[in-house]
Design brief:
This protein is about 10% helix and about 45% strand. By secondary structure, the chain is mainly beta. The chain has a single domain, classed as Jelly Rolls (Sandwich), CATH 2.60.120.370.
C-alpha cells in the first residue's frame, strides 16, 4: 500500500509505472473532477479507471475486498472517507468472487485505517484487503476515480 496526494506525487514514492499514469497531463485533479461518471481507458493502454459517486456508510455495513490480477489506485475527487485495511496477504483467506477480480472476504481482520480527503489517493496491491467508503462522522457523497492497473505493468 502506498498513499499520497495527486498534487504532490513526488512524495508518494510510487513505482515509475504508477507515477507515469498519475502524472499524465490529463490526470490533474481539476480535469478528473470535470469528467462524467464512467469508464475511461487511454488508447493502447491496459489500465483504465472508473469515475463515480458513492455514499459512505458505517464500517460494519461495508464489505472488505481484495484483487488478484489488478492493483487499485483509489483517488478521492471530492469528499472524504476512511478506508480500513490490513498489511497482510488475503489471497488464501476464505472469500467469494463477487465479479471478475473482486473477492469479498468472509471474515476480514483489518488492523489499520486511513482517512482520505479530496486529492488523496491510496494504492492496494493484489492480495491487500481493503474496506472502502467508511464514513468519517456521517454518511456523505464521495466522488472517486478508481484506477485498475494489471499487476504485470508494475
Amino acid at each position: 500500500m502506498i498513499a499520497g496526494n495527486i498534487n504532490i506525487l513526488e512524495l508518494a514514492t510510487l513505482p515509475k509505472s504508477l507515477y507515469n499514469i498519475l502524472s499524465r497531463p490529463e490526470m490533474t485533479l481539476a480535469n478528473l473532477q470535470s469528467l462524467a461518471d464512467g469508464r475511461y481507458q487511454q488508447e493502447g493502454e491496459e489500465w483504465f479507471y472508473n469515475i463515480s459517486d458513492s455514499f459512505t456508510s458505517p464500517e460494519n455495513e461495508r464489505h472488505t475486498e481484495f484483487h488478484k490480477q489488478f492493483l487499485d489506485i483509489q483517488l478521492i475527487l471530492n469528499g472524504e472517507e476512511i478506508i480500513g485495511y490490513s498489511l497482510t496477504n488475503a489471497i488464501n483467506e476464505a472469500c467469494y468472487e463477487k465479479k471478475p477480480d473482486l473477492f469479498i472476504l468472509q471474515s476480514p481482520k483489518l488492523t489499520n485505517k486511513i482517512h482520505l480527503k479530496t486529492g488523496d489517493f491510496v494504492t492496494f496491491y493484489p492480495g491487500e484487503p481493503h474496506q472502502a467508503l467508511c464514513m468519517v462522522e456521517q454518511s456523505q457523497k464521495v466522488r472517486k476515480a478508481v484506477f485498475k492497473v494489471p499487476i504485470h505493468i508494475i
